[in-house]
Design brief:
279 residues; alpha/beta; TIM Barrel; eight-stranded parallel sheet; 10 helices; 8 strands; globular
Amino acid sequence: MTAFEPILDNHMHLDPVNGKGAAAAEEFAARGGTHLLVLNKPSWYLVGEVGDPEDFREVFEITIDVVADASDLLDGRAWPVLGVHPALISRLVDDGYTPGEARDLMQSGLDVAAEYVADGPVLALKSGRPHYDVSDEVWAASNEVMQYAFELGAEVGSAVQLHTEGGEDFTEVAEWAEDCGLPRERVVKHYAGGPVEGPIPSVISNKDALEAAAEDGDPFLMETDFIDDPDRPGAVLGPKTVPRRVEWLAEHGYEDALRTAHVETPARVYGIDTEETLS
């Protein structure tokens, strides 16, 4: 157990259909974790192919239910983050959709996710663009989906987590968000390898990446991107990793950085109080 609380994993998946579901949150809690942001897995893992907005609603309801179960196991709480995985565009195009048709369907899924944010049970939205090579048409359509997520985030008052290609400079993306009315500090770059330019980095909890973020001194979050896949146990990182890394950072004198990652940045980005929500 760690001496530091609260402990937030900013990006974890819980899959009650194929994986451990809420039991993974129990592992996180047993190691000292207190708070979770749980993102819906890509739609094809939970419901198969999607063809209309109501298919996304089924994905989101599954995620909301497992997050409620996970919350009951934590000394803090869990929140859902809902959206459309950017790799869906490639699956749709492979199935015969034009990039524009795929864009429209994905934006309709984001509309449904934004309903849940506006109604209260969901904390934030997720979107992004492919992290692999795609055609110019698919890239353009993906950027339009992402910018639509920014518009919705501004409309319903929520942050947007991004799944994108790697790199350190996302200034243009942050500027797009601001053009849509969403402050750049409410845009989160998931799976960051350390500090990034533009959005807030959600740093994958490898020691080198975390040390770089801690030394940088700017706002950041910590995550595992645990994918809850029985065929890939522990991928990307296991549910106990963030509490373990918190302990490691504390041992190396990074208490200020821990407060940044687990108290100040969550409040700044999402408007949540991880200390007040500790039981």
